[in-house]
Amino acid sequence: MVRNVVHHALMIAATALLGGLLTATMVRFAPGFSADERQLDSRLSPESMQVLRDARAAERNVLPFYAGFLFRAAHGDLGTSRTLNRPVRELLAERWPATLHCAGIGLLLGWVLALTLAVSAAMLRRGAYDVFATVLAGVVLCIPSAVLALLSLFANGPAALVVALIVFPRLYRYCRNLLGQSYTRPHLITAYAKGLSGPRIFCAHVLPLAGPQLLALAGVSVSLAFGAAIPVEAICGIPGIGQLAWQAALGRDLPLLLTLTILVTLVTLLANLTSDVVAQALAPGQGQE
Amino acid sequence: MKIARRIAWVLIAVTVLMCLGAGFLAPAHYATQFREIPNAAPSRAHWLGTDALGRDLFSRTLYGTRVSLFMAPAAALLSTLLAALIGGAAGYLGGFWERVAMAVTDLILSLPWLFLLITVRALLPLDVAPMTSIAVTFILLGCLGWAASARVLCAGARSLRQAEFVLQARVSGMHGFRLFAVHVLPNLKPVLYAQFWISVPVFILSEANLGVLGLGVAEPMPSWGGLLRELESMWSPMAEAWKLAPLLLLVLVVGSLQLLISQEEVA
Fold this sequence. Notes:
Chain A has about 290 residues and is mainly α. Chain A is built from 11 helices and no strands. Helices cover about 70% and strands about 0% of the residues of chain B.
């Protein structure tokens, strides 16, 4: 178990580092990388221009730049954002709570909505209700995330609700299929035939069956919620990590993009690892099926 | 369910036919401006009114639907081909190559799709000609959307590696790319087909998201993303409900595709 976790942790670290290197390479070779709009400012002295050119030259060679970035990051220095002209560490500390609030509450709401509909559809086993829930999830799934964010602006709706609406149909589909499959198992049909109540069957028989897979889905849903937070924060004007990622991408802000890519990769992979470990601990052997 | 699927087929067919006939059906070219009537309400001359620049919204919806509806399958084809090459070859070769391919796949899958898309799209030039922007947007979708399919195809190819007919072909002296192309790839066709159809609605929605965020197809060329971006300038969805027509069409088409795909998956 411990060996497995260590192996996974090493893989996560390697994936995050590789992600950072790929981002640095992509930004470096992106058209217009060597141009800095500050060089157009006629008020700057030749010395200031030279400093700007030197700063760019230092970022031109990807490998030394990335090695230097990692070395400084290990000492707590994540560099300075070029577009916002502030330390990246400060920006992350400032914006993290907004994303945590928006994506966290949204994720929770999404799960509550998806599980309520999926569990009731599986338990009630009424065609009309099932069709209603499936159509509802299907329609929401067909609306682009950015449009949902725009519509929430018109309705003065909370951003967390938009994240919930983006996450909910994806979770619902999986939960509904999983619970639907669980309810067709022979021992559950026997339990029904013996007269056990719906809630008892759900708690005693369905949950232990579907639980580990639902936990695995919980890990994936963290990535979904963060992905949803980007358009929501960008459109609703919420100063969070999603908006920061959006600004960094538009401004080709290499230090900020690098940090964000590594951070996002780490968060999503850690969430997946945690849910996998918990699922395996709860139902050892099911993961190898 | 059968009726719903029939309706979905009819809806997609009608939409495709209308897009193909946009040149005849549209009352004006998508870029023609009626400067005296910007933001006009629907009328006999302009069925869906005009946008903020006085362009006929019905014409723009027809042309925009054509761009999104025809380019998304092209991007899906590209991503499926890449998935077949990367995932299929990795599963077929196994060992070191499989581990490398799956590490790259894991890396791409570990990043949220929109984060990856926005980051890479923003790195590419934004001030390009409209036709170039269409190519850039959809090639990007195709080049980034292969990872999930590659994982499925890798598993499929891995299971075929030890299949009896593959072993027999190997014993008969068939090796390398020929064995892969003649025996492995044709047997992955059902998976490839499913992955292609799953990718189409995903890419339509991704283009729409990019368009709303201003990273999609460049003006004046319309696309669903570009048309939906104009919702930003709307005063109120109730007072200008006709401006939601492109959104309604997008939801209907993507919903129909999802419905037909679920049928394919079940089959």
